[in-house]
Amino acid sequence: MAAERIRTELHQWLQRRGVTDADIDAAGDDTELIRMATDLVICRDVRLSVSDIAAQLGRDPKRVARLFRALGVVVPDLDAVLFTDEDVMLVEGWEEVDLLDSADGRALMRVIATMLDRVAEAGVALYVQGTEERLVREQADALVTAQKAERMTELAGGLGDSLGPLFRHHLGQAIGRQRVSQASVTSRDVAWHAVGFVDLVGSTAYAEKIDVSELRVMVSEFESRAFEVAAVCGGRVIKFIGDEIMVAALDPRAGCRLMLALVEACSTSGMQPRG
């Protein structure tokens, strides 16, 4: 009886959010109903296709689709309804910047697409491995799980609003680095940096002794320490390659200080950082 009551409440909760009776009846189980809660947030205000956006802006639909694809957005066809009024403003802004028609502009778009893809993947992983795992352990009912899924999707979507102020800080730092790294170069394609690598000796053998969740925590801690130390030492993390970090600084002395600090900070039981 309790399970049936909760399922009825879940149906009513979804109906108040615009899910039709037909969609609810077509759902195979509670898992599909819970997923609807997430989809409701992602698909909110979606009413336009690429063709619609192009018509509003007087643009070639193929060019609009090409712009979205250059930014990592899947466009299955020109008439697929996937977009909102905000996407119209996005296209208008990106067209004014005019990055699509130059190789360097498209390279910047790939960087942005890659960054946003990683943020999205990390956000989903945080929910699945954190909140959702806890709900499973606590044997939360379907209604509670759906409500939490909706709320966490709302919060994740709100991350975009905070990226503007953060980007301003990173842009200022990048401008400062450029002024130093290209102060005495003969070509704008060249910049001076001290580059270093730190890898964890013995990490493969250690990883074989622990389960996947422990390994994930270990790698996450390793990466977090690297970011913190790089920020304190005035350097930056370029990328992670498995159990290896690539870092950079603006001069060799700063690079050496950064490497020594990383080796000290990243020492953990069973592994020895090597720079």
What coarse outline follows from CA principal-axis ratios?
A: flat
Strand content: 5-15%
- Number of separate helices: 11
Q: Provide the residue-averaged pLDDT.
A: 88
SSE ordering: HHHHHHHHEHHEEHE
Rg for CA atoms: 24 Å
Low-confidence stretches: none
- DSSP summary, beta strand count: 4
Secondary-structure content class: alpha+beta
State the end-to-end distance: 62 Å
Helix content: 55-70%
Strand order of the largest sheet: 2-3-1-4
Please give the largest β-sheet: 4 strands, antiparallel
Brief description of this entry?
Helix content is 65%, strand content 8%. By secondary structure, it is α+β, with helices and mostly antiparallel strands. A four-stranded antiparallel sheet has the order 2-3-1-4, with helices on one face.
Provide structural commentary.
The protein is of the alpha+beta class and 275 residues long. Helix content is 65%, strand content 8%. It has helices at residues 2-16, 21-26, 30-42, 50-57, 61-70, 85-97, 103-137, 142-181, 203-207, 212-232, 252-265; strands at 194-201, 236-241, 244-249, 272-274. It has a 4-stranded antiparallel beta sheet with strand order 2-3-1-4, with helices on one face. Helix 3 packs across helix 8, helix 4 crosses helix 5 and helix 4 packs across helix 6 (85-97). The model has no long low-confidence stretch (mean pLDDT 88).
